[in-house]
Structures are given as structure tokens and as C-alpha cells.
Amino acid sequence: MNKFDILGNYNTQIEDSIETCIKNVGFSYNEFALFYTLYFSDDGKCTQKQVSDEWFLPKQTVFNICKEYREKGWIELAQSSKDKRERIVCLTSLGKTQVEPAMVKFIKINESAFSKFGEKKSARLFALLDEFSDIYKKQVDNMSPQ
């Protein structure tokens, strides 16, 4: 197996575990994308486009999730003052009550995994991934188009 395949296999294993964790906290991946983005945003707000771009989700998917959870009373939508086509999303108090336990559980699982892995190994892992990412990006950037 070549190194690219090995890297891909590790990435898939981690992503599968993350998806299982998301299901275990009670959300689909797409729902989690919205709620995670809202919960961890600096001001508790985001745009539908931001969720779509950051999580590589179709805009229509994000729109449908927002529609569903707006009807449930978990989120509110407002028009952006900068761009009338853009919708600002924020959690309602009901939404915060529903989402927070899942986010706390998700954070604890992640912190526990990194704690068991260790601070030094985590720092080393991130440094190596950062270095490899830079090298790979430069290789791709220097690639001649076909």
C-alpha cells in the first residue's frame, strides 16, 4: 500500500469515529455541522453560507436543516445587514438548551482522547501534520496543469 493510501485509511478511521460520536450525541452529521458552528462561533451567530463552506455541505441541505430547526424553535433567522441575500442564524434559548449537552459531551470525548494520547504526542502530531500539509500544498501549487 502506498503512503497516500495509508494516510487516507487513517483519515477515514478518524472520520468514522467522529461520525459515530456525532450520532451518539444525537445528531446527524449535517445537523451537527450547523449546531457546532453556532455553538462555537464567537458571537453565537453564523450564516448558512458559512456552514455550507466550512463543512462542504450543499447550500440546500443547510437551508433545509435551518428550516426544520426554525420550525422547532431551536434557531432564529435574520437577514444580514451587509447582504440581503444572506441569512444570519442564531440559537434560541430553547436551541441552546437542546444543543449544549451534546456539545459538552462531544468536547469531553475529544478532550479525553487527546488526554490519553498525551500533550507531547498531540503537539508533535499537529506539528508534523502542519509540516506535511505545507509541503503537500507546495507540491500541488507547483504542479503543471494538464
List keywords for this structure.
transcription regulation, 3-stranded antiparallel beta sheet, 146 residues, WH_DNA-bd_sf, DNA binding, mainly alpha, 71% helix
Which sheet architecture does the biggest sheet show? 3 strands, antiparallel
Low-confidence stretches: none
The percent range for strand residues is 5-15%
Instruction: Spell the H/E element sequence.
Output: HHEHHEEHH
Helix content: over 70%
The coarse overall form would be globular
Individual helix count: 6
User: What is the averaged pLDDT score?
Assistant: 95
Number of strands: 3
Distance between the termini: 26 Å
Which class of secondary structure composition applies to the elements?
mainly alpha
Strands ordered across the widest β-sheet: 1-3-2
Radius of gyration: 18 Å
Structure explained in plain terms:
- With 146 residues, the chain is mainly alpha-helical.
- The chain is built from six helices and three strands.
- Strands 1-3-2 form a three-stranded antiparallel beta sheet.
- Helix 3 crosses helix 4 (59-71).
- The protein is globular and about 50 Å long.
- The two termini are 26 Å apart.
- The relative contact order is 0.10.
- The model has no long low-confidence stretch (mean pLDDT 95).
